[in-house]
């Protein structure tokens, strides 16, 4: 599937800027995850698959929250993207879909954490440019901060990938930095 076709579908179902930016953020982190945890630069198709999974994982959430992710999973299968559809199904932990490959594991490990890192950026001067893993870990312990983030999914994802949480947080931060302006994660203004 071409990226522009996938993006058009996302935009048809997702109208808010915040959810589109989350899709873009997870797309970029997942592309980096393909390089880090997947087969690397020798597999351009894998990089695209990882990126599509990141972009589309919540595509139906805004329009049909009670059906999420059933509609996007069905659409992906109709498009012949069964591997991406499986990863999106597995990321929704309530379905209990098994994690069969690195794509599935990476989406779980990157989705919630990417959103959480973005939230951390919004409350600090310097945003993503000055954010460090220890600050994110501290905020993860504060259950009142970004309370909707499923912390258990963050932990389960890093365990599935076999990585340490601080290292994975650093990876997510580094993957997001080049896209800081587009994603509006440059932080709050200096006071």
Describe this structure in words.
It is a single chain. The chain is mainly alpha-helical. It has a single domain, classed as Hypothetical protein af1432. The protein contains eleven helices and no strands. It has helices spanning 3-13, 17-37, 44-56, 70-78, 82-91, 102-122, 127-130, 133-141, 151-161, 165-176, 180-183. α3 (44-56) crosses α5 (82-91), α6 (102-122) packs across α9 (151-161) and α8 (133-141) packs across α10. The longest helix has 21 residues, at 17-37. The radius of gyration is 16 Å and the shape is globular.
Q: Tell me the CATH architecture.
A: Orthogonal Bundle
- The geometry reads as globular
Class from secondary-structure proportions: mainly alpha
- CATH class type: Mainly Alpha
- Cα(first) to Cα(last) distance is 45 Å
Mean pLDDT across every amino acid position: 95
Which residue ranges are poorly predicted, with pLDDT under 50 across at least 5 consecutive positions? none
Please tally the β strands and state the result: 0
Number of domains: 1
Percent range of helical residues: 55-70%
Q: What order do the helices and strands come in, and which of them pair?
A:
Elements: H1 3-13, H2 17-37, H3 44-56, H4 70-78, H5 82-91, H6 102-122, H7 127-130, H8 133-141, H9 151-161, H10 165-176, H11 180-183
